[in-house]
């Protein structure tokens, strides 16, 4: 079945460590997104990519980095510079590179910093 | 910048009561989308509205897009326990192609 796969589902990290969250889609979608969700905060955009080898910062990009070397993959690295990394991270994709069409979400990765 | 405001943040209802969540944008939207996130789950697309004054129904859910395309609402008639979750509205980012701005969501609790 087509869809978006995020891994790992749960991740624990010590302070000062970088961690990379995986996001893979087999929907042949051009656009991919990373959102962060905290209780009562809704979904905040970290980075998004409209096409391979190109990506843009969202509203809360500080302390995060991404790459888009392949159409199917959009990994997110949470660096040690991110002050409060404990959160639920959601990856999404959309077929069109325009301002319409639904977002398809992965099941999310829950990161806890110990 | 673009903002999508959503109220209320929380709503607790008795099963069988109606529920409404409202979404307002600071700018005119070309379209608006609604998503539902069950507890512990991920957001799932419900619907997209495009036309001014548009009204769409999905069983007990009624979605409206305002005449000025700056506000929208989701109304659930006779809520059921299966309606529990957080409902988000989302609008595109104007000239910023591809961006989608989400409201903070309305968390619905339904008591049996």
Describe this structure in words.
The complex is a heterodimer of chains A (114) and B (112). With 114 residues, chain A is an all-beta fold. Chain A has strands at residues 4-7, 10-13, 19-25, 31-38, 42-51, 54-57, 64-66, 76-78, 87-94, 104-105, 109-113. In chain A, a hairpin with a 2-residue loop joins strand 5 and strand 6 (54-57). Chain A is globular and about 40 Å long. In chain B, the strands form two sheets. In chain B, strands 2, 4, 5, 9, 10 and 11 form a six-stranded mixed beta sheet that branches. A five-stranded antiparallel beta sheet of chain B has the order 1-3-8-7-6, with no helix packed on it. Chain B has strands spanning 4-7, 10-14, 19-25, 32-37, 44-49, 55-58, 61-65, 71-76, 85-92, 100-102, 106-111. Chain B is an all-beta fold. The chains are: A mainly beta (114), B mainly beta (112). The interface between A and B is medium-sized, with 26 and 26 residues.
Order of helices and strands of chain A: EEEEEEEEEEE
Percent of residues of chain A in helical segments? under 10%
Sheet-strand content of chain A, in percent, reads over 45%
Instruction: Tell me what portion of residues of chain B adopts beta-strand conformation.
Output: over 45%
Helical stretch tally of chain A = 0
How far apart are the termini of chain B?
Answer: 41 Å
Helix/strand layout:
The complex is a heterodimer of chains A (114) and B (112).
Chain A: E1 4-7, E2 10-13, E3 19-25, E4 31-38, E5 42-51, E6 54-57, E7 64-66, E8 76-78, E9 87-94, E10 104-105, E11 109-113
Parallel strand pairs in A: 2-11
Antiparallel strand pairs in A: 1-3, 3-8, 4-5, 4-9, 5-6, 7-8, 9-10, 9-11
Chain B: E1 4-7, E2 10-14, E3 19-25, E4 32-37, E5 44-49, E6 55-58, E7 61-65, E8 71-76, E9 85-92, E10 100-102, E11 106-111
Parallel strand pairs in B: 2-11
Antiparallel strand pairs in B: 1-3, 3-8, 4-5, 4-9, 6-7, 7-8, 9-10, 9-11
């Amino acid at each position: 079945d087509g869809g978006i796969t995020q891994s790992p589902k749960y991740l624990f990290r010590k302070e000062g460590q970088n961690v990379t969250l995986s996001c893979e889609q087999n929907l042949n979608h051009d656009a991919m997104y990373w959102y962060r969700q905290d209780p009562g905060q809704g979904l905040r955009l970290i980075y998004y990519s409209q096409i391979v080898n190109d990506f843009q910062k969202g509203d809360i990009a500080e302390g995060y980095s991404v790459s888009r070397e392949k159409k199917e993959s959009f990994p997110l690295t949470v660096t040690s510079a991110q002050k409060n990394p404990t959160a639920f991270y959601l990856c999404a994709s959309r077929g069109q590179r325009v301002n319409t069409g639904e977002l398809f979400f992965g099941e999310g990765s829950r990161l806890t910093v110990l | 910048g673009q903002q999508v405001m959503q109220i209320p943040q929380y709503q607790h209802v008795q099963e069988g009561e109606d529920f409404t969540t409202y979404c307002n944008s600071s700018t005119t939207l070309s379209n608006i989308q609604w998503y539902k996130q069950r507890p512990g789950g991920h957001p799932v697309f419900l619907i997209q509205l495009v036309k001014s004054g548009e009204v769409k129904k999905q069983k007990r859910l009624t979605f409206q897009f305002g005449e000025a395309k700056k506000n929208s609402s989701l109304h659930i008639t006779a809520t059921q326990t299966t309606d529990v979750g957080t409902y988000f509205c989302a609008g595109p980012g104007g000239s910023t192609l591809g961006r989608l701005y989400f409201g903070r969501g309305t968390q619905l609790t339904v008591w049996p």
